[in-house]
User: Fold this.
Amino acid sequence: MTDTTHQDKQAGQDDAGSNPADAFLGHDETLRHAPGPYFGAYGGRWMPESLIAALDELQETFEKAKADPEFTAQVADLNRNYAGRPSLLTEAKRFAEHAGGARIFLKREDLNHTGSHKINNVLGQALLAKRMGKTRVIAETGAGQHGVASATAAALLGLECVVYMGAEDCRRQALNVARMQLLGAEVVPVTNGSQTLKDAINDALRDWVANVDTTHYLLGTAAGAHPFPAMVRYFHEVIGEESREQILEQAGRLPDAVVACVGGGSNAIGIFHGFLDDRSVQLYGFEAGGDGVESGRHAATITLGRPGVLHGARSYLMQDEDGQTMESHSISAGLDYPGVGPEHAYLSDIGRAHYEPITDAEAMEAFQLLCRTEGIIPAIETAHALAGAMKVGRRLTADLAPGEVPSDRIIVVSLSGRGDKDVATAAEYFDLLPDDSAEQEIAQEGEQL
Amino acid sequence: MKTSQTGTSQAGAGYSKAAAAIDRARREGRAALIGYLPAGFPDVQTTIDAGIAMARNGMDLIEIGIPYSDPVMDGRVIQDATVEALNNGFTVSQVFDVVEGITRETDAAVLVMTYWNPVMRLGVREFAGRLAAAGGAGLITPDLIPDEAAEWLEASEEFGLDRVFLVAPSTSPERMQRTVAASRGFVYAVSVMGVTGARTSVGAAARAVVDAAHAAGAERACVGLGVSTAGQVAEIAAYADGVIVGTALVAALRDGGVPAVAALTKELSTGTGKKSA
Assistant:
């Protein structure tokens, strides 16, 4: 079933010619700042009526806030003086040797407070929650990155915070649960359904329906019902804006390609956005290929999924013949989601961005390589982008014109998060743990600590 | 679309099985009783038997749920039942067997309650055609709002199926107008802000939602969420055109099988008389 869809989609892209994005960028049309609710055939509001009023309120508050200099100044101040923005753009010269010799620049979201790009979105949404007079925020989390970021923003702004997390993930991620609790959040283990990230979102939505008067749902990715995809992207656009400025300053020109990992797709849409209208810049999103897309154990939603509705938006979705959501698999809990943000589905269909799977093994190879060549331990999510950058670099340098050298090719990689949370997983993967250590026992029980 | 909130009475709108069933109860001076069970819990034949038992013990309309992997509007009892149905191998096309099995044996109007992705996956028109062929009345759609329902509006007109959209305490007056206008058969008034599950009190919000629906032109507004006892049925029957019971019936089937569903239906039906309010 899924194979057919994939072929159909590829065929569709071929029909559009060698550079399908031309069709959309050739008429002075911009792809930037797409307001939603629809991104082509995707997006919308496939939500219970009970929540529509809250989505309307959020949309209205968001639109007003964007136009309010006081709000944008507040966001800018928190980004600069709390989150640590702008994040660096670091050239990775030794890593680049493994990417065909293309120049590789890393957008260092790992250096943000809380260790990933997630902080951009939670600060913005928590400020909106305050503007709406809400006193409580709820969030879902997989590995814990977004849960920790949400708990952080809630502590900073004096909001009550409840984080829904799969019971299995709570057990594997005991330290992240403790981190959220230290920050004053309540962590609710989710025992419904498959007990994964998607079920945590289901339970957060159930909480929201019952408590919508006091509560804002601080969704962690650029997915869900309108206005979430456009709003979450807005708060992450800073990644792309900074990257564009920094690469122009450091390299003197735009990159040939921008790459990012894609789970729900928030860091990717954030960095892509800065380059959407730069037609010379190729955009690549790398999805979790798990054990390999042919194995059935993966989270390569755009590569192999087909359109459907989940959690409020129409987008690509891993589903069976009956429309039941399928379980995704990835060594990276942060990419382990069977859906994807609707704007990515659109950018894929029109050929503006390209999405490919990276297997667990490829990601872990890139993970180790970055550690050893650059002294940076990336999140395993991010390692998918790094493995993708190696592939893209080799491709870009394979067909150089006469007189060109590999270093004429430039790639910007979204280094979306740091790997501290992944040390136990990696240590187990590379067999670095003593046989009888407690860490090994824990690491063997799950895909990620 | 404005004429669609009608049953047999208004020209051009077509025959609505759900409206006819509610009107039948109305002529008897009572509110309609509507019962929910998920298909395939614990198996397809039991759902058919339980549906027939409900119809023979006082249920005017029967709502058959399609078990779905991500039921965001359902509480624990229904979640557990639908997970069991899926684990027991339920497939979506079996819902048409259930509908046909019940409509063949009874006069009850049988609606299917479903989250939207399974319908989208089969194809909206294909789903509508098969539901109509099975004798089904229409669909109750908890995560489909009229704003996104263009394809369903078209298919339901083509096959003469009821479109039951939800309205909630949070629904704005503008949305109430639009949703009532888009509905066919009845509108489903969500009694509280929350998910399915028995509650000790249904609360004052339900009446306000029903009043708002009526004021927006709804001829039939039925109340669901949290209703589990004959006393609550009586309380709601005083102002609503129908009362919807779900979780309590699912728990009865789980704990006591089809006889328990029959007994609970009989007991609930004692609450439908308008006079008891």
